[in-house]
Amino acid sequence: MEKFVIEGGNRLEGSLSIKGAKNSMLPIMAASVLSGSSEGVELHNIPDILDMHVMARILQSLGTRVKFNDNTLQLNVDDLHSYTISDELMREMRSSIFLMGPLLARLGKVRVTYPGGCSIGLRPVDLHFKGLEAMGARIREEKGYIMASASRLRGTEIHLDYPSVGATENLMMAAVLARGKTVINNAAKEPEIVDLQNFLNAMGADIRGAGTETLRIVGVEGLGRCSYRIIPDRIVAGTYLMAAAITGGRLLLKEIIPVHLDAVVAKMREAGVEIKATEDSLEVIGGELKGVETLRTLPYPGFPTDLQPPIMALLAVAEGNSTITESVFENRFKHVNELKRLNANISVEGRTALIKGVKKLYGAEVETTDLRAGAALILAGLAAEGTTVISQIKHVDRGYERIELDLQQLGAKIKRI
Ligand code: UD1
């Protein structure tokens, strides 16, 4: 079992480029099965992370030929021969559910089990099912599997009870080959939805409205080949901005889309961090940190729940008190106990955490419980006095490509053992 060992107390300095977004890549990889072209799909700027390899294994199990080289992924789906995703693969990653929409659209049936993934709450998939049923899919449980079928999905009007990112993406992918027009109201507005729209349209789909709360999708007869570059990962970018800030360092992030981080930059500035923006870069200049009165996670363009654990680490060493309310997931405070081992002063009541800033964190042995909790612990370890040992780092590898190499390049003392 690998661990990270961090000697804290070094200022991060330098510059980094940011690779493609995990949360764009996963639905886009799933959407590739919609392509009927023998030439397949080529994806650029793909991060070499664990979740990519799991999704690649799922696609291979369905008959896709997969090649990954130098952050470019080639997917050939002309020999799709299975509509079943094994229980073992479904459990490994929640995003396996993304295959439901595309497989239904392409093959008319799909067999899956309930998905696994980070343990940050109940994370039901009722909205995915409700939308697919509204498009004419029959969904039933059979010997522990969920079986969905439809000879051809039909366009319809869907109102999501909540702007779920995954449900919006699944339904978009289902609708592109449906008969007629689908309208999705109260859709999620995340940049990754826009990226999925752009990718599907590049393959020949007819989708408009991504980035707003109403998506309009006109079904087409088939999709072709395409070559596509995915957007930079705003969550990785945000994590690194906070890593620099927590060490009082200075970091220039290049090849990013700063507007995707507006809510994050605003909160960091409120916490006393100086941030300079250009059209495709952000530079953070660390200084004295101060607490923020209220921070609430929200669907985009609000503050992203995925950066709630990292910013909690930052606020743990800010002067004064902060409160963070987690409104997206009902159980996303598992990092709190681990941060407390490093001397953070945090108490949780319901969905709100009260953080009383401390002068110093001290190194300790901690365990990662999920992907972004892992990022929070790394940040805390970078700022702490002494040695921090973090176990269960496979969670971190799900979403960050060799995070220790990036941090070492900036002067951090972190190693994988
Ligand atoms: C995606 C992201 C994840 C991010 C989250 C919120 C990917 C691969 N993952 O996850 O990193 O934290 O968006 O920004 O893109 N819900 C239901 N019923 C459903 C679906 C969702 O009640 O059918 C609830 C969930 O339990 C949760 C909330 O809606 O409380 C948000 O979930 P959702 O937006 O669907 O997140 P994911 O797509 O799972």
Structural features:
UDP-n-acetylglucosamine1-carboxyvinyl-transferase, Chain; about 425 residues; 4-stranded mixed sheet; binds uridine-diphosphate-N-acetylglucosamine; alpha+beta
Count of individual beta strands: 23
Mind telling me the C-alpha Rg? 21 Å
The rough form would be described as elongated
CATH architecture of the largest domain: Alpha-beta prism
Task: List ligands, each type once.
Answer: uridine-diphosphate-N-acetylglucosamine
Number of helical segments? 14
Here the CATH topology of the largest domain equals: UDP-n-acetylglucosamine1-carboxyvinyl-transferase, Chain
Strand order of the largest sheet: 21-22-1-23
Spans of at least 5 consecutive residues whose pLDDT stays below 50 are: none
Secondary structure class reads alpha+beta
The major pleated sheet works out as: 4 strands, mixed
How many independent structural domains? 2
Average predicted confidence as pLDDT = 95
Roughly what percent helix?
Answer: 25-40%
What is the beta-strand fraction? Answer: 15-25%
> How would you name the CATH homologous superfamily of the largest domain?
Enolpyruvate transferase domain
CATH class value of the largest domain: Alpha Beta
Task: Tell me the distance between the termini.
Answer: 9 Å
Please provide a written account of the structure:
It is a single chain. By secondary structure, the protein is of the alpha+beta class. The protein has two domains: 4-18 and 232-416, UDP-n-acetylglucosamine1-carboxyvinyl-transferase, Chain (Alpha-beta prism); 22-229, UDP-n-acetylglucosamine1-carboxyvinyl-transferase, Chain (Alpha-beta prism). 31% of the residues lie in helices and 24% in strands. The chain contains 14 helices and 23 strands. The protein has helices spanning 22-31, 50-62, 87-92, 100-107, 126-134, 165-175, 191-202, 234-246, 262-270, 308-316, 335-341, 371-383, 394-397, 403-409, and strands at 4-7, 13-17, 41-44, 65-69, 72-76, 109-112, 138-142, 145-149, 157-159, 181-185, 206-208, 214-218, 226-229, 250-254, 274-277, 282-285, 295-296, 321-325, 345-349, 352-356, 365-367, 387-391, 413-416. The strands form six sheets. A four-stranded mixed sheet has the order 21-22-1-23. Strands 2-14-16-15 form a four-stranded mixed sheet, covered by helices on one side. Helix 1 runs parallel beside helix 2 (50-62), helix 8 (234-246) packs parallel to helix 12 (371-383) and helix 10 (308-316) runs parallel beside helix 12. The chain is elongated, with a radius of gyration of 21 Å. The mean pLDDT is 95. It binds uridine-diphosphate-N-acetylglucosamine (UD1). Residues 23, 26, 94-95, 121-128, 162, 164-167, 192, 305-306, 328-329 line the site of uridine-diphosphate-N-acetylglucosamine. The site of uridine-diphosphate-N-acetylglucosamine (UD1) has 22 residues, from helix 1, helix 5 and helix 6.
